[in-house]
Amino acid sequence: MRTLWTGLLLLSAGCSGQQIMTETIGNPTVEEVLDEGREDIFLLDDIVYLNGEEIDWVQEREYVLGEEVGEVTAQATEPEEFKDGTANVLPVGTVIYTTDTELNIAIVNGKKIPYIPLVEG
């Protein structure tokens, strides 16, 4: 039986009008996220981050850009090819920054792109 992700995912699902589902309890895996049709993700410190540009509450969120926490070091399309620093859309070399919120920010050609961590609880 599929269950709703709790915490941040439940909030984002409610605010965006989308239902986000998973088959396991705990943080979703790259495979689960890609199987659900999510198209722009990266993996950092064993957490999958999802592009939040289309999510209303993310667009409205104000933040202060923090320090660099990672960089995209590889691109992949298959879940088994993902390791820390892998993305499926962001180009290799993209720097990832923290913020004073739950969001991380990727900067591509001067454009700030918000990503939300897909975590349980």
Description of the molecule:
It contains three helices and ten strands; from the N terminus they run βαβαββαββββββ. The protein has one domain. By secondary structure, the chain is of the alpha+beta class. The chain starts with a strand and ends with a strand. Strands 3-4-10-9-8-5 form a six-stranded antiparallel sheet. It has a two-stranded antiparallel sheet with strand order 1-2. A hairpin with a 2-residue loop joins β9 and β10 (111-117). The protein has helices spanning 8-16, 30-35, 56-60; strands spanning 3-4, 21-22, 41-44, 47-51, 65-71, 74-75, 86-87, 95-99, 104-108, 111-117. Helix content is 17%, strand content 34%.
User: What share of residues are in beta strands?
Assistant: 25-35%
Percent in helix: 10-25%
Give the mean pLDDT. 83
Domain tally: 1
Low-confidence stretches: 1-22
Please state the overall shape, judged from the principal axes of the Cα atoms.
globular
Order of helices and strands: EHEHEEHEEEEEE
| Main sheet strand line-up | 3-4-10-9-8-5
User: Number of helical runs?
Assistant: 3
Q: Report the strand count.
A: 10
Determine the N-to-C terminus distance.
19 Å
Biggest sheet architecture: 6 strands, antiparallel
Structural class: alpha+beta
**What is the C-alpha radius of gyration, as a whole number of Å?**
14 Å
